[in-house]
Design brief:
This protein is 34% helix and 17% strand. It is α/β, with parallel strands linked by helices. The protein folds into 2 domains: 195 residues, Periplasmic binding protein-like II (D-Maltodextrin-Binding Protein, domain 2), CATH 3.40.190; 145 residues, D-Maltodextrin-Binding Protein, domain 2, CATH 3.40.190.10. Strands 1, 2, 3, 4, 5, 6, 7, 8, 9, 10 and 11 form an 11-stranded mixed β-sheet that branches. β1, α1 and β2 form a beta-alpha-beta unit. The radius of gyration is 20 Å and the shape is globular. The two termini are 27 Å apart.
Length: 356
């Protein structure tokens, strides 16, 4: 398993601390469970193995903080969401990991229906809004992410490009060959985009739109974070992506700003889950990790990691400058429908728009 992976080009050289604690914040005891930074007791089993689509340097902040609090060392492997799902299916009888952490909830719905997840209700789950929860508790929410347009401010200023405010604005011929986005067969990010468009416009109208948008696409990247990285590096003027991936580039000093479509946008409920048939020694550690992520300590690590993710816990603080979800024109995104139609929509995209 990899303990570290190569960063995206736009993240090279960034060093983050794993403290996740600030003396000016509300005391951890105000939320249950309360994790502290006191020296932990020796765990019965010292390791937890995790599959995640989240990337460096962000993800190490969470795992290092968890180890500091619990004494449990996290072995992890970064996989694009489709690859993570394929790995879990391949290893269904004897998974090498105990936890999946991150990625949109519709991916978890799909594999839960295949019996690959072990239900577990983390401490603190009762404080999360019902709209983000799985009734069967096969998976749990851990963050929120909203689809946006991210643009390179230097390119837009230099070439006097019009700022896109609606989905149809992306069809302007001025953007011919200037837009990038991930391919939905390789990225949970882009599946959230096309599923959202299908719910907003109807499937046939959404694919007619995607055909027009394809004329302005320079290329499709192999993962969600690679699109804003290309914009930050100046390889593209504009992309469609999750806001947290774009804002992370801005925090690293790249010339990126975001716009939320005024005519509506989709969002993800980031999820996490315990894998069925996980090694017995790791199951208890997996419970501890899922509990920890929903604690104030875990939720506010999104600030320290500069991951720009919105916490799901209503009492957890979010990074300065992040908008409240109720101030964004989000659609009534149906994750169950998205899960049920995933294979069909991706196959249609490959058939009618462009293969990966």
């Amino acid at each position: 398993m990899k303990k570290r992976i190569l960063c995206l080009c736009a993240a090279a050289g960034l060093v983050l601390g794993g403290g996740c604690a600030d003396g000016n914040r509300v005391q951890l005891a105000d939320l249950q469970p309360a994790f502290t930074v006191d020296p932990p007791a020796e765990p019965a089993y010292p390791v937890l193995t995790v599959y995640t689509p989240l990337t460096e340097p962000e993800v190490s902040v969470y795992f290092d903080a968890f180890e500091k609090d619990t004494g449990i060392r996290v072995q992890w492997e970064q996989l694009a969401t489709p690859d993570m799902l394929a790995r879990v299916r391949q290893e269904r009888r004897a998974p090498r990991a105990a936890v999946m952490f991150g990625g949109s909830s519709e991916n978890y719905i799909a594999i839960a229906e295949e019996g690959l997840l072990e239900p577990y209700e983390p401490q603190g789950l009762g404080q999360i809004a019902d709209s983000y929860l799985d009734a069967a508790r096969a998976w749990s929410p851990c963050y929120l992410g909203v689809i946006c347009f991210a643009y390179n401010t230097e390119i837009f200023a230099r070439e006097n490009l019009p700022l896109p405010e609606t989905w149809d604005d992306l069809l302007d011929p001025v953007f011919r060959g200037r837009i990038v986005m991930a391919h939905p067969s390789l990225s949970g990010t882009s599946y959230t985009i096309i599923a959202g468009l299908a719910q907003m416009r109807g499937e046939d109208a959404a694919f007619q739109y995607l055909k027009q948008l394809d004329e302005n696409i320079s290329h499709y990247t192999k993962g969600g974070p690679f699109s804003p990285a290309a914009v930050g590096c100046g390889d593209a003027a504009l992309c469609v992506t999750f806001a947290h991936d774009a804002l992370r580039q801005a925090h690293e000093g790249f010339p990126i700003r975001i716009v939320f479509p005024s005519d509506g946008t989709s969002y993800e409920t980031g999820a996490m889950a315990l894998l069925r048939n996980a090694a017995p020694g790791e199951t208890q550690n997996a419970h501890a990790f899922l509990d920890w992520v929903l604690s104030r300590r875990g939720q506010e690590c999104y600030i320290d990691a500069k991951g720009e993710r919105l916490p799901v816990h209503p009492a957890a603080q979010k990074a300065e400058g992040l908008p409240d979800l109720d101030r964004i024109s989000t659609i009534r995104y149906d994750t169950q429908w998205s899960a049920e139609n995933r294979d069909k929509l991706i196959a249609r995209f490959v058939r009618e728009i462009r293969a990966a």
